[in-house]
Amino acid sequence: MFDTLSDRLEGVFKKLRGHGRITERNIEEALREVRLALLEADVNIRVVRDFVDHIRKKALGQEVLRSLTPEQHLVRFVANELCEVMGGRARELDLKVKPPVKLMVVGLQGSGKTTTLAKLALFLKNERKRHPLMVSTDVRRPAAMEQLRVLGVQCGVPVVESREDQDPVEIATRAIAKAELSGNDALLIDTGGRLQIDDELMEELARLKAVIQPHYVILVADAMTGQDAVNVAQGFHERLHISGVILTKLDSDARGGAALSVRTVTGAPILFAGIGEKLDALEVFHPDRLASRILGMGDMLSLIEKAQQNYDQKQAKELERKLKKNEFTIKDFADQLKTIRRMGSLSDLLGMIPGLKKLAGAADSEDAKREMVRIQAIIDSMTGQERDNHLILNGRRRARIAAGSGTSVQDVNRFIKQFDQTRKMMKKITRMGGGPGMMRGLGLG
Questions:
Q1: What's the angle, vertex CA 32, arms to CA 31 and CA 36, rounded to 5?
Q2: What is the three-state SS of the chain?
Q3: pLDDT tens digit sequence for 33-43
Q4: Taking CA atoms, which of 15, 65, 189, 310 is between 20 and 30 Å from 93?
């Protein structure tokens, strides 16, 4: 995710390392590189200009110019600004309205609109304990109605029957009545799409919105189309005043232009991110966590949340206790790896672990698989005492582990370093309880 941008920014910060002091010239050179990195990532030009200007004002302060750690200061400013341009904080759907809460989902053909609507319904069902109902008003594409019916079966959410010879407003009105009668407290309305924005499409959607008066108008946009996704969002917002955006294929976006531009250009927040093809591959969009991942610092909070979904409550509490008491061991780490394998995309998960981001970019490669096998072999070659207390791993023990696992001492040292980074990061996040405090606790807020 955002590998191109991450690599470019890492190069910018690397050039600042070794400077005992920093000058205005150093800052201007670094900001020029940041600007180019954002433009190459297909970020909107206005967003890039404001981004760089905001950082310049902060970076030219006397506190930075006199600092012995100029790189850390610039990283902090960039992290904060990345977080701000993406919305600052996660935005929750306010479901405290008279039921059913009506969510009208719009977007162009090919953006993954219908599948995303089903993912959102499953999210509301599982994570918000709602009883959703779905309906398709896309009369121009009969396959959309059948697709939604099939998806409804797969995610266990009922679907209102509709036909291509019916009027979209009539279909939606009937669905609202059915939701009220059946006690469904959330109604998700799939709408017609086109290959591009046109007056006919917008008039149809505007008429539908005027009649059903949805609580939310949610745009589904393909993150991989970059500025095209931003232009689509702007076009829909001008005509429909969208409430928020769901970016699909965010896990495959190597540049990041859409995620870094949509909110500033439209004013509408990014609500969710599509991170895979499975129906449960939809996550609340957290700007602070994504900023951390872009800068190569991982996203341990999301990893913990994913892990806890695979634990029972007792196990989750025990993990939290160990983290707070600084008792997280290599044995616990090994258990986490086993859990990770049940949690989804290896590439996505590796990107959340500090020190493994580079590996994440090629998670499906043979090199990545070999690395995971190597780590497991290193752990298996340790004694129980060593897994419980990695501080006893002196040079002699590390040499023995390397020989027993068929690896090198350098491989063992690298793993211990990765484990230490993960342990420290998880301890900080657990102490802060997650959320906005995460960035501050890491020295980035």
A1: 115
A2: CCHHHHHHHHHHHHHHCCCCCCCHHHHHHHHHHHHHHHHHCCCCHHHHHHHHHHHHHHHCCHHHHCCCCHHHHHHHHHHHHHHHHCCCCCCCCCCCCCCCEEEEEECCCCCCHHHHHHHHHHHHHHCCCCCEEEEECCCCCHHHHHHHHHHHHHHCCCEECCCCCCCHHHHHHHHHHHHHHHCCCEEEEECCCCCCCCHHHHHHHHHHHHHHCCCEEEEEEEHHHCHHHHHHHHHHHHHHCCCEEEEECHHHCCCCCCCCCHHHHHCCCEEEEECCCCCCCEEECCHHHHHHHHCCCCCHHHHHHHHHHCCCHHHHHHHHHHHHCCCCCHHHHHHHHHHHCCCCCHHHHHCCCCCCHHHHCCCCCHHHHHHHHHHHHHHHCCCHHHHHCHHHCCHHHHHHHHHHHCCCHHHHHHHHHHHHHHHHHHHHHHHHCCCCHHHHHCCCC
A3: 889 988 888 88
A4: 310
Structural domains of the chain, ranges and CATH numbers in brackets: 3-85 (1.20.120.140), 101-290 (3.40.50.300), 297-441 (1.10.260.30)
- For the segment 257-316, what is each residue's pLDDT rounded down to a tens digit? 788 888 888 889 999 989 888 898 898 998 888 887 777 655 455 555 555 565 556 666
Judge contact between 52 and 19, C-beta under 8 A: no
Give the global pTM: 0.69
Please indicate whether residue 52 or residue 22 has the higher confidence score (pLDDT). Answer: 52
Please compute the mean of the pLDDT values over residues 154-178 and round it to a whole number. Answer: 92
Residue of 329, 358, 336 whose CA lies nearest to 420? 329
Residue appearing with tokens 């890491």: 442
What's residue 347's pLDDT?
59
Could you tell me if 416 and 424 are in contact, meaning their C-beta atoms sit under 8 angstroms apart?
no
Half-sphere exposure at residue 315, Cβ-oriented, CA atoms within 13 angstroms: 12
Q: Which pLDDT value is given to residue 305?
A: 59
Residues in the chain: 445
